[in-house]
Structures are given as C-alpha cells and as structure tokens.
Amino acid sequence: MRDAARQLQSVAEELWGTGLPLRLRAWDGSEAGPPGGPVLVVRNRRALRRLLFKPGELGLARAWVAGDLEVEGDLYAALTLLSGLIWERGEDTGGSRSLGAALREPGVRAAVRRLVALARPLLPPAPPAEERRRPGLLHRHTRRSDRQAIGHHYDVGNDFYALVLGPSMVYSCAYWGGPEDTLEAAQRDKLELVCRKLGLRPGMRLLDVGCGWGSMAIHAAREHGVRVVGVTLSAEQAAFARKRVADAGLTDRVEIRVQDYRDVADGPFDAISSIGMAEHVGAARYLEYARTLHGLLAPGGRLLNHQIARPPQHDEDAYQVDAFIDAYVFPGGELAPVGTTTGLLEEAGFEVRDLESLREHYALTLRGWVANLEREWRRARALTTPGRARVWRLYMAASALAFESGQLGVNQVLAVRAADGGGSGLPLRTRDWR
Question: Which of 17, 167, 250, 272 has its C-alpha lying 20 to 30 A from 314's C-alpha?
C-alpha cells in the first residue's frame, strides 16, 4: 500500500501546527494535500534524514541541492506557500512556526518518532559537494578568507553567468522603467544612472570596486570618457573583463586588476563606484572599508555605494547569517540596515547626499535572471553541476520574493568627500546630478 505521502502530511501538519499548504508527492508515488497548484516532491527517504540530522533551513537546502526535494509547477508559488516552513530569520510567517523550530519543541515527540520511522535507515547523509566546507573562517574577512568567499561564488564559470545574466554581464540590481523593459536595457540604464550620479566627465579617474565582468568600467570609459581602474578578487572575472575591454578598444582607458580594495595604493580618484560589493565586506570591517574608500577619493570626489540591506532587528549586535546563503551562495556575506551603512559612511568622513531605494527593481531583475536560467536549464546544468544550478535557481527565486515583500531592500547611497572649505561640488537641485 502506497501511503508515504499521507503519513508525511500527518507528521508535517502536527509539527507545523496547521494544514499542509500544497500538494505532496512521496517516493512511493503516493500523493496527499490540496489539489491544484505546485507539488512538493519528496524523491527519497534521504530528504527526511537530512531534515532530522540538520533541522531547519540548512537541512532543507541540502535536500534541495542534492535533488532529494523538488517542486513541480510554479516555484515562486511554492516558496510563498512554504515560507513559514522554511524561513527562520524572524520574518512574518503568518503565525506558523518553522520546521526547524517545530522539530526542537518538546511537545511533538510522537510526530518526530513517526518521521524517524519513515526516514530509516537513520544514517547521516553527507552534505552535497556544492556546500562550502570551512565554517567560521570566511566570516573573519581577512584578505585570504575574502578571496576564498569570492572564489566560491564567482568562479562558477563565466559561461554559466553569461547564461543567467544575459549580454550585459551585470550581477546587480537593474534600473527598470517598467516590467515591459528588457533586462539588458534596464542594466544599461542602471550603469548610466550610476555614471550620472557620480558626475563623470572626460578625463576623470574612476575606481570601480568589485568590478565584476567589467560592465561598469567599459560603460564609464566608452560613454563618459573617463579612465577606470577596476578591481576584483575573482581571477575568472578579471580574465573575462580584460577580454571585453580589449574587444571594445578601451585598453588605454581601462585597467582590470585582481586586487583587494584594501591594497589599492594609486589614488586619489575623482569618483568611486561600489556596486553590489559591500555585502561581502562584513560588519566588523565596514568602517575600515568606508575609511579606505574615503582615503582613495580626491577632495570633492563622489562615492556611489549600491548595496543590499535588511530591515532593523531587535538585537543589532547579534551575528546575522542565513544558513542556506552562507553555505551555498555568499559565504561570509552580511547585510545591515541602510541606517547603519549611512552612519558608518559618515563616521568615515563622508557626507551622505542622496539615497535612492531600488527594492522593486531588484525583484524584477531576479525574476529576469530566473527566467534566463529556467529557459536554458539543461545547458545551465551542463555548464556547472546540477546541484549548483539548483542553488542558483532557489536563491534567486527566494530573493525575488524577499525583495517584493520588503524582507530585503537595496539602496544607492551617494556620498562625497568634501573639498577644502566644505564644498560638495553637487548642484543645488541634487537630482540634476551634474
């Protein structure tokens, strides 16, 4: 008799404290739960063992990455329905408790025993190969640990990123006029927005911190006539960016380095762009980051800091890390409220002059990347590993929902290093930028 799905439904509802929100299919082919909509597929008993040995988000992530869990149908709808079961970071989940919290409660021992019986043989599965293996070290944000973290995330393969990001090769929030825009046009408009905020003019010198595959450097040099130094810790990114610079005929104006921003010693620069890089800096190093960039700017120079933010939480001193993101996506990444970021920039000597939230823009961007990935799914799996492709699909889809719901934000902060006498060099009507 095939009834694993019914047994799982019963256990899940007792643990979760409410009805199962989507249909469930088990390894024996049985199904249970409400019809219609997406289906959560539990492919084998190993998925249950992963949850028992690592209750919560990390166990679920391991089961997803290994292919033990799958979603048939709309992934966004499934993640929305399962949000209370998955997330453990204090979001509003409608009063339901996460699976990790439920498994640790003393009043559900009978349900846990039934889950153990379903999961047998009870042996701890090895984590998927895509999981990073050096916990703790990457949170120190030394030069060595930051290189390791960047390598884990960005040295996945340039062809894979080209498939996901599209021709722009920009891995940060685009700037949309509307949902009808193309991803390529929205990324071009974002680069132009940054250049306008920085007031770039021919002959100026720009430092692009975390230059990625060179898109900002190329745009600034080609469209605004500036000289650019771009720095990245990823050797694969740098090689790709240098080829793009050469193909664009800009080698006399753009230099791409594999270099830590803390080791840049040839300032001053007239402007600095930091787009989607500061999330890697770490809370303990953020003031150092801000002071370093302040020291590299000429008096009157501008910094454009484009960075993901999280809402303030009750215990701002607590170390905040997302288990799935830390293990599989951005090792050592830390998010801070935008107020914390602007305060540290000011402490470093900057004058913060403008802040623009692009939260909804990032949701549209992520949905565009997911669409690219799903459209070329078989090729994406071949370009990296099946597990890595699954990591990227899950994290981008979940992140899109987080930006849409306000659980995450992203902001462009324009700051200046005041000139002698306190002049900012900005127009009286700031949004004219120049």
Answer: 17
Do 264 and 399 belong to one domain? yes
Residue range(s) defining the domain that contains residue 381 = 138-432
Beta strand segments in 28-100, E: 31-32, 39-42, 69-72
Domain assignment present for residue 17? The answer is yes
Closest of 306, 308, 274, 323 to residue 408, by C-alpha: 308
**Along the 434 residues of the chain, how does pLDDT read in single tens digits?**
589 999 999 988 888 777 888 999 999 999 999 999 999 999 999 999 998 888 878 888 999 999 999 999 999 999 998 886 665 544 444 445 566 666 666 667 788 888 889 998 888 899 998 887 554 544 566 766 666 666 555 656 899 999 999 999 999 999 999 989 999 999 999 999 999 999 999 999 999 999 999 999 999 999 999 999 999 999 999 999 999 999 999 999 999 999 999 999 999 999 999 999 999 898 889 999 999 999 999 999 999 999 999 998 765 544 356 778 888 887 777 899 999 999 999 999 999 999 999 999 999 999 999 999 999 999 999 999 999 999 999 999 999 999 999 999 999 999 999 998 888 888 887 677 66
In a domain, 132, yes or no: no
Beta strand 409-416 with 297-309 is antiparallel
What is this structure's pTM? 0.91
d(CA 68, CA 282): 33
